[in-house]
């Protein structure tokens, strides 16, 4: 669907009298209906309206202009996350805790917010992305940088044709134009208004092979989420995870050697677990170099009716942690989270009605924060839109051993280390001379691509960090630096002297 903005549409707009953003949004909906266009973004309307005024030598409708010019809201991290779900499909797993609802991909519950949106759109990838972008823009948000998060059962278990079609349709929805091939859709997206700057896929560790990771790269994937759940083999066996701690270590090493950033899902309170055993899992995550995840989603185990575990619970063979046990465990865990890890979720967003037994407190993170439980994870330290003078930011380089290589977490932080403005994850593998930038992230108020305004995003942290990263890689004897750049950020790196190579952007490092 392309937006055919006709002169009639703009004339109607010109003659309207919106007084509030709500009026303007209603007007946009009316125009979209009348002219059969999609919802047109504020930015596009503003540009076209100005052109119209110049062409027609008309006086501006000041109310309208004022509303159109009002700066759209950005999410604090600057990136608009869009979550889409794949169609219901069998999963090779037989995990006892997993919800198995009809009409839902395995492990999802129909009442979860993202699942509801997917259901409304009949799991169509194009409609899910398109509707979400429209919704964001109608609420006055900017959606020019999109992190596409694909959830559902085990991604790697879906047919390959479906995978490719699904991702292609997501890019087409962002581009608002159809393409012959996925590659063409990705190329168009590199310079599109709605750029997909990263793609997250979710899979099982035992499906991660070199071949699978190459396929994920071709789809544009930059971030992999894997269900680890526990590093206690006895617990894994009991919950029928059909995987081993050693297997997870192997998958993790491959992810690092491909330069992916990755998230572990961990479930405290599984059958067979004790708070001591769960704490040991978290301790191992960051003391054993075979693991070291970048991000965590902590999902305390709850009983849902559609899981096998429900029968265990009914028979009195299983009981989730009570609130007090869970709370004190999470406090202990938060205290050992290293400063280079981001806790993305502390609780899964399962509506209370669906929880038969287990934690019901969904704002646990905020509660713990209120109680003064401090956590040095990235999420708790992110700069929230504040502008910062470069001289107030210090460059920090933290290193740790990681799956036979070395990781450098290089960041700009406040002198007291309580605020983080930007960071790079640089992986120096033990088995090759090519280093990887797995992630570059700057926080703060974001200004649309190409704008010159000085917010945290544009004080040059990104460029400075990349220059520092190149130096560190070179000083360690690395000949080449590869960045696992999302489709929508390749342009950024090309401007920094990087060239395209095998789905990455690379730079030769030389003295
Ligand atoms: Zn934290």
Quaternary structure state of the chains depicted: single chain
Class by SSE composition: alpha/beta
Low-confidence stretches: 445-454
At CATH level 2, the architecture of the largest domain is Alpha-Beta Barrel
The helix content is 25-40%
Main sheet: strand order: 1-2-3-4-5-6-8
Shape descriptor reads: globular
CATH topology assignment of the largest domain: TIM Barrel
Cα Rg:
24 Å
Number of strands: 16
Count the domains.
3
Main sheet properties:
7 strands, parallel
DSSP helix count? Answer: 18
- Overall mean pLDDT stands at 87
Separation, N- and C-terminal Cα atoms:
50 Å
CATH superfamily of the largest domain: Aldolase class I
* Each distinct ligand: zinc ion
CATH class term of the largest domain: Alpha Beta
**Strand portion:** 15-25%
Polypeptide structure, described:
- The protein has 511 residues and is an alpha/beta fold.
- The protein folds into 3 domains: 63 residues; 302 residues, TIM Barrel (Alpha-Beta Barrel); 119 residues, Gcn5-related N-acetyltransferase (GNAT) (Aminopeptidase).
- It is 36% helix and 19% strand.
- The protein contains 18 helices and 16 strands.
- The strands form 3 sheets. It has a 7-stranded parallel β-sheet with strand order 1-2-3-4-5-6-8.
- Strand 12 and strand 13 form a beta hairpin.
- Helix 6 packs parallel to helix 7 and helix 12 packs parallel to helix 14.
- The longest helix has 16 residues.
- About 2% of the residues have low confidence.
- Keywords: 4Fe-4S, Acyltransferase, Iron, Iron-sulfur, Metal-binding, RNA-binding, S-adenosyl-L-methionine, Transferase, tRNA processing, tRNA-binding.
- It comes from Candidatus Kerfeldbacteria bacterium RIFCSPLOWO2_01_FULL_48_11.
- GO terms for molecular function: 4 iron, 4 sulfur cluster binding; metal ion binding; tRNA binding; tRNA uridine(34) acetyltransferase activity.
- Pathway: tRNA modification.
- Its cofactor is [4Fe-4S] cluster.
């Amino acid at each position: 669907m392309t937006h055919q903005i006709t002169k009639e549409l703009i004339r109607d707009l010109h003659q309207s009298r919106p007084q509030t953003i709500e009026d303007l949004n209603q007007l946009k909906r009316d125009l979209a209906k009348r002219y059969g266009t999609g919802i047109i973004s504020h930015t596009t309307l503003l540009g076209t309206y100005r052109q119209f005024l110049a062409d027609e030598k008309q006086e501006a409708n000041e109310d309208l202009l004022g509303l159109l010019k009002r700066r759209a809201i950005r999410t604090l991290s600057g990136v608009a996350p869009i979550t889409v779900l794949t169609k219901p499909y069998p999963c090779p797993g037989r995990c006892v805790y997993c919800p198995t609802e009809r009409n839902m991909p395995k492990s999802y519950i129909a009442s979860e917010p993202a699942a509801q949106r997917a259901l409304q759109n009949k799991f169509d990838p194009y409609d899910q992305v398109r509707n979400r972008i429209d919704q964001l823009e109608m609420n006055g948000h900017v959606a020019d940088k999109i992190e596409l998060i694909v959830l559902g059962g085990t991604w790697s278990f879906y047919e390959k044709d479906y995978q490719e079609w699904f991702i292609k349709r997501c890019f087409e929805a962002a581009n608002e134009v159809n393409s012959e091939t996925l590659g063409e859709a990705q190329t168009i997206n590199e310079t599109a208004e709605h750029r997909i700057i990263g793609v997250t896929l979710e899979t099982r560790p035992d499906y991660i092979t070199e071949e699978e990771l190459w396929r994920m790269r071709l789809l544009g994937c930059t971030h992999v989420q894997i269900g680890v759940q526990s590093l206690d083999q006895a617990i894994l066996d009991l919950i029928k995870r059909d995987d081993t701690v050693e297997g997870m270590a192997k998958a993790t090493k491959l992810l690092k050697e491909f330069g992916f950033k990755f998230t572990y899902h961990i479930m405290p309170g599984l059958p067979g677990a004790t708070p001591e055993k769960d704490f040991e899992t978290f301790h191992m995550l960051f003391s054993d170099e075979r693991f070291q995840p970048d991000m965590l989603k902590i999902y305390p185990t709850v009983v849902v009716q559609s899981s096998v575990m429900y029968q265990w619970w009914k028979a009195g063979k299983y009981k989730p942690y009570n609130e007090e046990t869970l709370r004190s465990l999470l406090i202990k865990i938060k205290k050992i989270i290293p400063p280079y890890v981001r806790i993305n979720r502390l609780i899964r967003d399962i509506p209370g009605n669906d929880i038969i037994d287990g934690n019901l407190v969904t704002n646990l993170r905020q509660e713990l924060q209120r109680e003064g439980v401090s956590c040095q994870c990235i999420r708790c330290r992110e700069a929230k839109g504040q502008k910062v003078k470069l001289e107030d930011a210090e460059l920090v380089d933290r290193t740790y051993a990681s799956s036979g290589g070395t990781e450098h977490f290089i960041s700009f932080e406040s002198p007291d280390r309580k605020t983080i403005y930007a960071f790079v994850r640089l992986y120096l593998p033990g088995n090759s001379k090519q280093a990887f930038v797995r992630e570059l992230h700057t926080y703060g108020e974001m200004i649309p691509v190409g704008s010159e305004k000085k917010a945290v995003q544009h004080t040059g942290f990104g460029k400075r960090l990349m220059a520092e990263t190149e130096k560190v890689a070179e000083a360690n004897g690395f000949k080449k630096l590869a960045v696992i750049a999302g489709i929508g950020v390749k342009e950024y790196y090309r401007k920094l002297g990087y060239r395209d190579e095998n789905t990455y952007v690379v730079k030769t490092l030389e003295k």
